[in-house]
Each structure stands twice: as structure tokens, then as C-alpha cells.
Amino acid sequence: MTLTPEQFNKLAAKEDLKDLEQKITEDMGQKLDNIMTAVDGLTKNVKDIEHGFVSNQAAHDRFEELLARIEKHLDLKPMFNFRS
Questions:
Q1: Residue 65 lies in a domain
Q2: Residue 11 lies in a domain
Q3: What gap in Å lies between CA 76 and CA 44, rounded to an integer?
Q4: Distance between the two ends of the chain, CA-based, in angstroms?
Q5: Domain span including residue 44
Q6: 1 lies in a domain?
Q7: Which residue of 2, 39, 61, 65 has the fewest C-beta atoms within 10 A of its own C-beta?
Q8: Structure confidence by residue, pLDDT tens digits, 45-81
Q9: How many folded domains does the chain comprise?
Q10: Would residue 25 count as lying in a domain?
Q11: Which residues contact 68 (CB under 8 A, 6 or more apart)?
Q12: What is residue 2's three-state secondary structure?
């Protein structure tokens, strides 16, 4: 099979392939940086949510202790037995 001059001019040269490889490498590096930045943001959000859960649990425990003391002081029977 012979190539026409037009077809021959469309063939990629080694330099063209190296340029393409470099461009792809740079693009993928930038995309990876963007992904890692997004993952870092999500990680921070999860840590903030976990911190909020711990704080809420601590507050819940304090309120439960306070209610138990009030019930005992007033000689009340709890309506619900949530304590195990």
C-alpha cells in the first residue's frame, strides 16, 4: 500500500508523539491535583461532622445525668427506661 503525499503529511512524527505525551502527562497531573484537593475537602468535612457527633453525644450524656439526678431528687419514676 502506498501513501499519498497528503496521507504521509498526516502521519505523526516522533516529536509530535512526545509533545502529545507531555501534554497528556501535564493534564493528568492537573486532574489528579484537583481530585486530591476535593478529597482533602471531603476529609475535612467528615472530620468536622465526626467532631460534632462526639460533642452532641457528650452533651446528651450530661443532660441524661442531670435528668437522672432530678428524677431521683423529686422521687419520680422515669417514663421511659433509656438507660441500660
A1: yes
A2: no
A3: 44
A4: 85
A5: 32-84
A6: no
A7: 2
A8: 999 999 999 999 999 999 999 998 999 999 988 777 7
A9: 1
A10: no
A11: 83
A12: coil
